[in-house]
Amino acid sequence: MAFNGTFEHTLDAKNRLTVPSRFRAELSSGVFLVQGPDPCISLYPARTYEALTQAALEGLNPMSAQARRLRRMFHAYATNTELDSAGRVMLTPRHAQHAGIDRDVVVIGAGDCLELWARGAWEDYDRELTSQAPDLAESLGHPA
What we know:
The protein is an alpha+beta fold. It has helices at residues 24-27, 46-57, 65-76, 93-99, 119-139; strands spanning 6-10, 16-18, 31-35, 41-45, 78-81, 88-90, 104-109, 114-118. The strands form two sheets. It has a six-stranded antiparallel beta sheet. A two-stranded antiparallel sheet has the order 2-6.
């Protein structure tokens, strides 16, 4: 299943996010909350994140400095959790701080995962992305 769309949500008092209902079945077998290089939190189905990290590390010398750094990045910044019975996921303070999320969250589909953005950060990024859309489309060989 591809994760698509943009949804506005608010965290509850316990830092829980209600996942859009259309995605809950895909996420029912466990999820990973992942702090990545962008100011957001990625929410992956567990099997997708496990396959992604395995593929990224495959072929690397496991004792090399690069492999050790990548393993730390993939595992130290990821939290394995589950949706509760109401379809909510609790954000850790570390993840929320990384993304600058206080209460207002924009949940966006990013293909193989959902991304959780602070509303203001998403609005800024969305404007930038929209302005770059013609150049991005052209770089693929498809004129805007």
